[in-house]
Structures are given as structure tokens and as C-alpha cells.
Write a structure and sequence with these properties.
With about 260 residues, the chain is of the alpha+beta class. The chain has one domain: Ribosomal Protein S5, domain 2 (2-Layer Sandwich). The protein is built from five helices and twelve strands. Strands 1, 2, 3, 4, 5 and 6 form a six-stranded mixed β-sheet that branches. It has a four-stranded antiparallel β-sheet with strand order 10-9-11-12, with helices on both faces. α2 crosses α3. About 40% of the residues are buried.
Length: about 260
């Protein structure tokens, strides 16, 4: 599908899949406990896009500049099984960006109460791994992965400790300490028109993209700009406002 066709549709206030500019795809569904090996897991189905996120815990040393804080590590693996344009091997720019945007939403919102992840100050803390695995890519992996990460962390529990060693597969009933529940909403600009929840063809042809992480309080905690085209201030304001508004709709699927 050519960029000119997508822009022509946008000029007529239309999209390739018939949605309104401010309309999210349906359904948006969350399935929890997908993995019985992970401390937390969630699968998000967002239209035809599917993303799995697993949360694993480890014990290790804190960073020297934050001796009382646990550690968050977020990674993404883009498999050709999810999209034939994804390549096997080390993480490429798309995987790195996906992981960073999801990580930033969690980190900057202070979603994780890292102080409560401290076992012994300066010696031992919990390390939380958030691993993102797209299963089918039909666009907007950022929002789907962010939602799956939040759901997986919300459901995650600590594994049992025997001394300073984890008893993997043996779970406690203690939830990981959380402060907020951020979700991310992405808005693209195509031909001067702002649209939420881009499908794959729109992602391939947008001029600019803004992904906004919003807490349940309506506060913005992180943003990521994508695309090679600059935006006017009024366009940025419009896109952010739309993202904040639709984030409340996305949040409704979190139980």
C-alpha cells in the first residue's frame, strides 16, 4: 500500500481499515498467567496484533549509585514468526526502541516501588526482568507491549527465597510492589491528520509518531517521538491530548 494512497484516504477523513481517526481497534484483550514458569505473564490481543510479556525475578547487586533500589531490565525479541520483516539475531533498532519505550513508561512513572525490592542495602536487591515477545505484528506493538508489561507486572509475585537463593518454580503470594499503572497510547500523523492505534500499513507510511505514557491519575510520565518529519506545536498538542484521552479507554481492560 503506497504512502500516497494512505495520505489520500487521510485527506478524506478515512483510514485503510475503516476506523475513525480516534477509534481504537477491537478487541483489546488481556490474558494473565500465560506462563506457569514466569513470576508474572500476560498476553495482549489488540486487533490482529498479539504480544506476550513475561516477568522474571533474580537476585543481584544494586547499582553503586542506588544501593537501596531494585533493578528493572526490559528487553524485546522480534521474531520472524511475528513478522517476516523481522530478522533473526541480535536486537535491531526496532527491538531496542520497543524495549526502551516500554521501559521508560515503567521507570519514569515510578511504577515499581524499587525501595521495596531491596533485600540488603548495598549488597542484594531484586532484579526484575520484563521480556517482550510479539507473536503477531499488525501494527502498534508499542501500545500492546506496554499494556502487556503493565498487566504482567500487576500479576507478578515474588518467588521463594532460601537464604539468598531463589527457589525457582516455587512462588509466594506476595505481589511485586507497585505505585502506579501506566499505559501508553500512540498517535501518528499522516498528511497532517492525527490517528490513534496505527495498523501496520499506517506505521509504514506515517510522517510522525508520538507515544505517550499516562498514569491512572492522568499524568504524563514519558514520551517518544518517531518519524523523520517535524511537527508544529499545535500538532504536538493535538496528538498528546488525543493520547491522554484514549489512554483512559485503554486502561479499562486492566482488571
Amino acid at each position: 500500500m503506497s504512502k500516497s494512497y494512505v495520505e489520500t484516504l487521510a485527506d478524506k477523513d478515512a483510514r485503510t481499515d475503516g476506523r475513525k481517526f480516534d477509534e481504537l481497534r477491537k478487541p483489546i484483550k488481556i490474558e494473565l498467567g500465560v506462563s506457569n514458569k514466569a513470576e508474572g505473564s500476560a498476553k495482549v490481543t489488540w486487533g490482529e496484533t498479539e504480544v506476550f510479556v513475561g516477568v522474571k525475578m533474580a537476585i543481584g547487586e544494586p547499582y553503586p549509585d542506588s544501593p537501596e533500589d531494585g533493578v528493572l531490565i526490559t528487553g524485546a525479541e522480534l521474531s520472524p514468526m511475528a513478522d517476516p520483516e523481522f530478522l533473526s539475531g541480535p536486537p535491531g533498532p526496532e527491538a531496542i526502541e520497543l524495549a526502551r519505550v516500554v521501559d521508560r513508561g515503567i521507570r519514569e512513572s515510578k511504577m515499581l516501588d524499587t525501595k521495596k525490592l531491596c533485600v540488603r542495602k548495598g549488597e542484594l536487591v531484586w532484579i526484575v526482568f520484563v521480556d517482550i515477545y510479539p507473536l503477531n505484528n499488525d501494527g502498534n506493538l508499542i501500545d500492546a507491549a506496554s499494556l502487556a508489561a503493565t498487566a504482567a507486572l500487576k500479576s507478578a509475585v515474588f518467588p521463594k527465597l532460601n537464604g539468598d537463593k531463589i527457589v525457582y518454580g516455587d512462588f509466594t503470594k506476595t505481589k511485586i510492589p507497585l505505585n502506579l499503572m501506566p499505559v501508553t497510547c500512540t498517535v501518528v500523523n499522516i498528511g497532517g491528520k492525527s490517528m490513534v492505534d496505527p495498523i501496520l500499513e499506517e506505521e509504514k507510511n506515517f510522517d510522525a509518531r508520538i507515544s505517550v505514557s499516562v498514569s491512572e491519575k492522568g499524568d504524563i510520565h514519558a514520551m517518544q517521538k518517531g518519524g523523520n518529519v517535524g511537527l508544529e506545536i499545535d500538532q504536538v498538542d493535538e496528538m498528546i491530548g488525543l493520547a491522554v484521552k484514549k489512554s483512559a479507554e485503554i486502561r479499562k481492560v486492566l482488571k
